[in-house]
Structure formats: C-alpha cells, structure tokens
Hints:
mainly alpha
Amino acid sequence: MVRSHFKTIWGWAGQKRIFFDATPEYMFRPETVCRIKSDLPKIKLIVILREPTSRAFSAWNFFKKIHSRKHTVPSFSEAVQREIDVINGTREEDWLTKLGIVRRGFYFSQLQFLEKKFNSNQILILKSEDLITKPKKTLNKILEFLDIKNHGWNTLKKIRRNAGVYKNKINDDDKRILDELYENENNKLKEIYTIQFDH
Length: 199
C-alpha cells in the first residue's frame, strides 16, 4: 500500500531519481513503520528531532488551530495532564490524547523500534536546530547519507517556514513537568545516539 501510494503521488519515475516525503507521523506509529518496511525495505530514513518539550507545546498550538472549529480545545496544561494520565493507565484515550502531543516526544523508544525494522545504515538521526545553526554541514551530512556528492551551498538562503507565533509562552510548571517526563529518554538519546538538546 505504501508503494502504491507513492506511485500515485510521484509517478515513480525511474531508479535514478530520489523522492522525499516529510511527516511527523511515520515514526510515531509502529504499524506505519511495519508497512514501510514491508513495501519499501531499502528505503533511507532521515529522522529530524526537535527538543521534545518545545515540540509538544508547538504541537498543541498547531492542533488547537486546526481543531478549534470541531472541539473545545483544553489548555496546554490540561492536555499534558490528560495524556500523562493515559500513560499512567488512569484515564481512557479521548480525541485529544490520541493525537499523542506528549508521547510523540519519546524519541528513544521510537528509534529503538525503528532500528528493529531497519538497518542502522538506513537511518540518519539529526537535530532540527542543526539545520538552523549549521545548515551547510547538516545538509552535506544528508547528501553523504544519500550517497550524493557534497555541495557548496553558496547560494543557500535561510528561510524559516511554518514557524509558529504564539500569544503565550509555555509556563514554568508545564515545562518542568515535561522536562522531567522526558529526562530518562533524553539521557538515553545522549548515551546511545549522542543527541543532546539545548534548552
């Protein structure tokens, strides 16, 4: 199904062309990872990770924007607590918790599952901030991963796309709760993958 989906989108034109698809959904959903493995076993995967607490707050703002016509979207504090209750087994899933605003930030667990399905040489793990602070080096790292000759990027222009502008910042209590929740996974990311986030 995955292969036929991409054929429909791109026409699957030839073996010498490289196609990209970008979404935060794939790695978060184990069943999707399994389908990709089944349909595209030789695929190369580029995983771009954002500091998980800020990512959760960004995701809530995004979902609030697109869901506000259908639902009364609770505060970020309530959204976080609802999902933590689901994680702890004290609450049933609802439409909000199913979005996985909090659980999407458990990167280490997701990467471990990904590596059970794909060889390590098929996976490149990057931090999103590196694309901002050192774009040329990071882009050449991607080219090397894809077996493409390095580029000088002399005409590269830094353009921020889809950058959210929020009325309020995340409050200190919510940040503390999430930082503590992610601490164990972040420590494992640092130990196993040498990925460390700047706060």
